[in-house]
Write a structure and sequence with these properties.
The structure holds 2 protein chains of 2 kinds.
Chain A: H1 2-21, E1 26-31, E2 40-47, E3 54-60, E4 78-81, E5 86-95, E6 102-103, H2 104-110, E7 115-122, E8 159-163, E9 178-183, E10 187-197, E11 210-221
Parallel strand pairs in A: 4-11
Antiparallel strand pairs in A: 2-3, 2-5, 5-6, 5-9, 7-10, 8-9, 10-11
Chain B: H1 2-23, E1 30-41, H2 43-46, E2 51-52, E3 55-56, E4 66-76, E5 81-91, H3 97-111, E6 115-121, E7 125-139, E8 142-157, E9 160-165, E10 171-173, E11 179-192, E12 197-212, E13 215-216, E14 228-243
Antiparallel strand pairs in B: 1-4, 1-14, 2-3, 4-5, 5-7, 6-9, 7-8, 8-11, 9-10, 10-13, 11-12, 12-14
Classes of the chains: A mainly beta, B alpha+beta.
Chain lengths: 222, 245
């Protein structure tokens, strides 16, 4: 009996040792191998009632031979819209540092489940969709004195942007490559466009994630 | 290290068999056995293919060749036909550093981040309790043995994978203790080296449609997401059988 008890004990110990000895933890860090540059952003608007009424504004910041950003080209950032009209708007994002030019919009569409665009009309009478944060640097061509810290009671840009495309998350969050621009009375101001990258944290709000893109346009409604 | 582990298991088998032999008495037309050996994962369970962006493979298991150890017993109500069952433990390892790197690369790409940190621990350990018909075709001291079994596949653990995208909160594929239906087909032979004792060599194919895998803190649909782990493997086992009658 004594012999049997010892062998039982030994067998259990051997099996337990064999199983536990192999139960180890592994940890690795896997870096990315490449990232696209967002050099060129175009907003293409089409009047829903007059399809010939189109306009395109383009914000561009190319890279030098060493990959460093050149000054922002604001020569084509003016967007002119008719008052009291509705436009469909489409964003086209390009990486012109690659040859051939790479269409980043398609990439973002494929990765819609963790990307979200925010459109901020400035000055604004409504609550900001892009909240003001201390040290916020406005993108060209939006001047530093543009009201980004608080809403205004007059002289607001009468432009309301509603996102019309969505991702494939179960909650179906907006994306923002496609949107609707609804204009009001004549006014001038700026449109700030921001792309938030929210990996595994997209919830329809601005807060999670980091900013991939922050650009601006001059807007005239007449 | 692997050889050392296998040796330890085989030693345990022999010792446990001696224990059973010392305790049992011939009380009926039964046999009891203890066996163990190598267990090789197959198909998706063994696969390390992660797919690619837009079509991630959510079924590959990264299982490794490991070992199995088990008890079995059967009652023969006919000289060729019986009913019986097995209680079998299988271990198919965990994720290696290379596996974790591969997973990390896939999550880095899937979520378009600068880096992913992947931490893995735990391993595939499964306990099966299966019953069904046994068949025996004796030739002198040899007999050809076959069995077709079905029953419970109980996961004791599966690899846990925790992924942190840059500095975002980590999400985790949890270790599973779920159960599922499993089935097994086996073929082999026995050699009776004494009136009561036989040496067996069996080859068994086991399969289960899968055990449920839970995930924690997955907020967006992107990247590989495992919710069910199909398992299949082939066991090659050497064992000792004790005839009770």
């Amino acid at each position: 009996m004594k012999y049997i008890s010892k062998t039982k004990l030994l067998a259990v110990v051997l099996v337990a040792f064999t199983i536990q000895a192999c139960n180890k933890e592994e940890q690795v860090v896997a870096p990315t191998i490449a990232n696209e540059a967002l050099t060129t952003v175009s907003v293409i608007v089409t009047n829903t009632l007059a399809p010939f009424d189109k306009d395109t504004a383009t914000w561009e910041q190319l890279l030098d031979a060493n990959g460093y950003p050149l000054p922002v080209d604001v020569s084509k950032v003016d967007l002119t819209l008719k008052a009291n009209a509705t436009y469909t708007a489409e964003l086209v994002l390009l990486d012109k540092s690659q040859s051939p030019v790479f269409n980043v919009s398609n990439e973002i569409k494929e990765r819609a489940n963790y990307h979200l665009f925010f459109y901020q009309s400035l000055p604004s009478m409504s609550a900001f969709v892009i909240p003001y944060t201390s040290g916020d640097v406005l993108p060209d061509p939006i001047p530093t004195n543009a009201s980004t810290t608080a809403t205004v009671s007059s002289n607001a840009l009468n432009l309301t942007v509603s996102i019309t495309d969505h991702d494939s998350n179960p909650q179906v969050y907006p994306l923002g490559l496609q949107s609707s621009f609804v204009t009001g009375a004549n006014s001038t101001g700026w449109l700030r466009l921001m792309l938030r990258h929210q990996p595994n944290s997209k919830n329809g709000t601005y807060t999670p994630g980091s900013t991939d893109l922050d650009v601006g346009f001059n807007v005239t409604i007449q | 290290m692997k050889t050392k582990n296998i040796f330890s298991v085989l030693t345990a088998i022999v010792l446990l068999t001696s224990t059973i032999c010392a305790q049992e008495e011939s009380t009926g037309n039964f046999f009891l056995g203890l066996s163990g050996g190598v267990s090789a994962p197959l198909g998706n369970f063994a696969s390390t293919d992660l797919g690619e962006f837009g079509s991630w493979n959510n079924t590959s298991g990264f299982a490794k060749t490991g070992f199995n150890i088990g008890f079995d017993g059967a009652y023969y109500f006919h000289k060729n036909i019986g009913v019986g069952g097995v209680l079998n433990f299988s271990d198919h390892g965990g994720l290696t550093k290379d596996d974790a790197t591969k997973l990390g690369d896939s999550y880095t790409d899937a979520f378009g981040v600068d880096e992913s940190t992947v931490i893995t621990n735990s391993r595939y350990r499964t306990l099966n309790f299966l019953v069904g018909p046994y068949f025996s075709l004796p030739f002198n001291k040899f007999s050809i043995e076959a069995r077709a079994l079905g029953g419970l596949a109980q996961s004791i653990s599966t690899p846990e994978v925790s992924v942190q995208l840059e500095d975002n909160p980590a999400f985790t594929q949890l270790s599973s203790t779920a159960s599922a239906f499993g089935w097994q087909l086996g073929l082999g032979f026995k050699y009776s080296f004494s009136e009561k004792m036989a040496l067996s060599l069996m080859c068994d194919y086991f399969s289960t449609p899968g055990v449920a895998i839970s995930n924690e803190n997955r907020s967006n649909t992107a990247g590989r997401l495992v919710t069910n782990q199909q398992m299949s493997w082939i066991n090659g086992s050497l064992g000792l059988a004790y005839k009770l009658k």
